[in-house]
Task: structure prediction
Amino acid sequence: MHHDIPTIVLVHGAWADASSWTGVIQRLDRKGFTVTAPPNNLRGLGADAAYVRAYLETLTGPIVLVAHSYGGMVITNAAKGLPNVKALVYVDAFIPDEGQPAVALTGAESALADAATNPPSLFKLAPYPGAPEGSVDTYLLAATVAGSFAQDLTPDEQAIITATQRPAALAGLGEPSGPPAWKDIPAWAIIGTQDRIITPESQREMAKHANVQVTEVDASHVSMVSHPDAIVAVILTAAAHVREAVPA
Result:
C-alpha cells in the first residue's frame, strides 16, 4: 500500500458498538483501504479519549479519524496534537469546543433533553463496579431506539441495536471537552436531517463554529447504518484531501 493512502479509523458512539460501522467498513474495504474500528469504552470523556489516543499512537502513516455521535467528543480530544491524524469526519456527531459537555449540545428538541431530569424515561439504568458517586450505566429503551435513535431502520435492525448496544456511563455525558483537535485538523461533518438525538440545528451550529464542511442526508441519528454510501463518499473526500497533502 502506498504510504500516502490513509488508514480509516472509525469510532462508535454511545449505545452502540463497532458493528454499527459494518456497511461503511465493507464499502471501504472493497476500495482497498485499511480500516479499523477500535472500541470506545464509554466510561467518561477523559478516559475514553485517552484510550482512543493510545490506540491511534500505535498506527503509522496518515489517518482519517471518523466518529459517530458521542464519538465526536472523543476524537475531538483524542486527536489533539497527533501529527498523523490528517482529517476528522463527524457523523451525526458532537463537535465540541473547549469546556462544552455533550449534554449541553444535544439541542432543545432532542429526545435526550429529559435525560438529566428523568433518565428512566429514556434509559434502562444499571449499576457497574467502580462507578463514580451517582453514576450508573445507561441503556436505551427499545422505544427510544425505535422512536428517536434509529427510526429509519427496520424493526429487525432496531431490535439488533437494542440488544447489542454498549452502555454509556451517565457521568461521562456531562464531562467538559478539552482543547479541540478541529482547530488544527481539516474536518467534515455529515448531518442527518431527521436526527432526534443531536438535533440538526445543533449540529449545524457546531459545524459552523468549527468551520467544517457539511453534507446533509435524509437520515436518523444512525446515518452510517441507513445511508452508508453517503458516509463513505465523505470519507473518500477526506481521504483524497489527505493524499493530496501528503508528500509523495
